[in-house]
Amino acid sequence: RKAKRKRITQRQFEVLQGAFLVRDTPSHEVRAALAAQLDMSPREVQVWFQNRRAKYNRERALKKQKESQVN
């Protein structure tokens, strides 16, 4: 049976988002440090960054699409 999905806290989000703004692809060492600091597994941190990059790329593509419709 799968484990129940864990939602991140506001503090965890703020720290992860701050790290994302500095670098969207953190090194293994940075991911491990964030995981220890935030009481998350390195895998959870890795997946958060993967999902955040996908969201960023989706939003950027949508913005480009809207800009091209205006012209």
From TrEMBL:
InterPro entries: HD, Homeobox_CS, Homeobox_DNA-bind_prot, Homeodomain-like_sf. PROSITE patterns: HOMEOBOX_1, HOMEOBOX_2. GO terms for biological process: cell differentiation. Its main location: nucleus. It is found in: Nucleus. Keywords: DNA-binding, Homeobox, Nucleus. GO terms for cellular component: nucleus. Residues 3-60 bind DNA. Residues 1-59 form the Homeobox domain. It comes from the Eukaryota. One of its GO terms (molecular function) is DNA-binding transcription factor activity, RNA polymerase II-specific. This is Homeobox.
